[in-house]
Each structure stands twice: as C-alpha cells, then as structure tokens.
Design a protein that fits this description.
It is a single chain. This protein has a six-stranded mixed sheet with strand order 2-1-6-5-4-3. The N and C termini lie far apart (about 40 Å). The chain is about 30% helix and about 40% strand. It has helices at about 5-30, 55-65, 105-110; strands spanning about 40-45, 50, 65-80, 90-105, 130-140, 145-155. By secondary structure, it is an alpha+beta fold. It is built from three helices and six strands, in the order αββαββαββ. It has one domain (about 5-155): Roll (Nuclear Transport Factor 2, Chain: A), CATH 3.10.450.50. One of its GO terms (biological process) is nucleocytoplasmic transport. It holds the Pfam family NTF2. This is NTF2-related export protein 1. InterPro entries: NTF2, NTF2-like_dom_sf, NTF2_dom, Nuclear_transport_factor_2_euk.
Amino acid sequence: MTNNKDSAVNFANDTSESFVESYYKAYDLDREKVSQLYRPSSAIVYNGTPVQGVENVHNLFMSIPASQHEIQSWDTHPIQDVITPNAPVPPSILLNVTGLVAHGAAAINALSDGKSLGSKKNKEIILLPRTFSQNFILRNENDNWFIISDCFRFVG
C-alpha cells in the first residue's frame, strides 16, 4: 500500500469520525441544521422513501419525531476518482453507520437513565429503540463535506 493510499484511508477515518459525531448530534438536538449538509442534487432514501433536494430533505427531517441515536459502529472507505487517483485527499468518502435510535419524547425519556439503549428489555415495545443502518456518500467541495447520497433503513 502506498503512502497516498494510507493517507487517504487515515483522512477518511478522521473525517468520518468527526462527521458521525457532528451529524447525529445535530440530528438529535438541532435538526434544522442537518439539511445544510445536503446539496440540491443530494438524494436520500429514508426507510424506502426516496427524497431529493435540500427543501424536500429539510421537510423530511422536520417530519420525523424527536430522536436519540446511539452509534454502535461505523466504517469508512475513501473513494478515489480515476482523474486524480493519487490525490492526498479523496474527493468522496463512503460511510456506513449502524446503531440504535429511539423516536418520540416518551421513548427518549424512557432512555434517560444513561444506560445503553440496547439494555432495555422490559420496556413497552413503543419505547424500545430500533436498530438502523445508514450509508452516506460524502463529497468534498471547497474543503467542506456534503452528503451526496444517504440511505437510512431500520433493520430491527
């Protein structure tokens, strides 16, 4: 593996770690800001529902009940293009995130004891968190990272 490839992988890891922390914090606490991470051509498939464009993305996020995410794992891969295969900063990043999410005030309040979301065995089913998988393609534009593609799916 060359130094450029190592550098691209490390850069993708660092960028993704920062993105995951910022994205889910904003999603849970200040959702108005989340749509700023999307471009006019960005596309989302939210649990089977396709949405495109910043305004439609914003409307989708504002229609989702309050949430609390617990990230279990994430994995990232730099996507090098054929024009600049040895660029030190990859033009795009593929990011896969898995975790648990609770929606609605009652569910979030039921989880406020600080324990893992996954430890709630005796809660009403509506209060239980759901497992999710989310895949992003992030694109670097003028030293800012934007979401080009976003696919969210409940898996449990």
